[in-house]
Design a protein that fits this description.
The protein is 29% helix and 25% strand. The chain is an alpha+beta fold. It has a 5-stranded antiparallel sheet, covered by helices on one side. The radius of gyration is 14 Å and the shape is globular. 31% of the residues are buried.
Length: 134
């Protein structure tokens, strides 16, 4: 079940760019999560860049990434908004070529849960990444 972030701790606007600014997104995540386990940070970078790239390839602006570390429950949540509520992700398929469409499959294989929350004018594709066991 999705637990949407009502007050995101951190936001990164993607619409100031013609192409997805993935290196900037990764640097932003490293700065925001600097105190966390490096493996968790790396997983979050990979998942966030996959979701951001999907928003650029399959949807339209406005686009926004939110990041929330829920330390009490041991989860990092990444949310990516776009303005295409009727264009839903389908794991393992792509209209962009046979070697595409594996990002959501990869996200799930990393132990993250993911989902989509739809609203009238936008959707939020989210993933929750568990902290590694201590």
């Amino acid at each position: 079940m999705s637990t949407p972030t009502t007050r995101p701790q951190h936001e990164f606007r993607l619409d100031d760019h013609e192409t997805p600014p993935l290196s900037q997104v990764r640097a932003w995540i490293r700065a925001v999560l600097a105190d966390l386990d490096p493996d968790l940070v790396a997983d979050t970078e990979l998942i966030a860049t996959e979701l951001a790239a999907n928003a650029f390839e399959h949807a339209k602006a406005p686009r926004l990434i939110r990041l929330d570390h829920r330390g009490a429950v041991g989860i990092v949540r990444v949310e990516v908004d776009d303005a295409a509520p009727d264009v839903l992700p389908k794991p393992g398929t792509s209209t962009l070529g046979e070697f595409r469409g594996r990002g959501l499959v990869l996200i799930k294989s990393m132990g993250a849960t993911w989902g989509v929350d739809r609203y009238g004018d936008r959707k939020t594709v989210w993933a929750e990444i568990p902290e590694p066991p201590a």
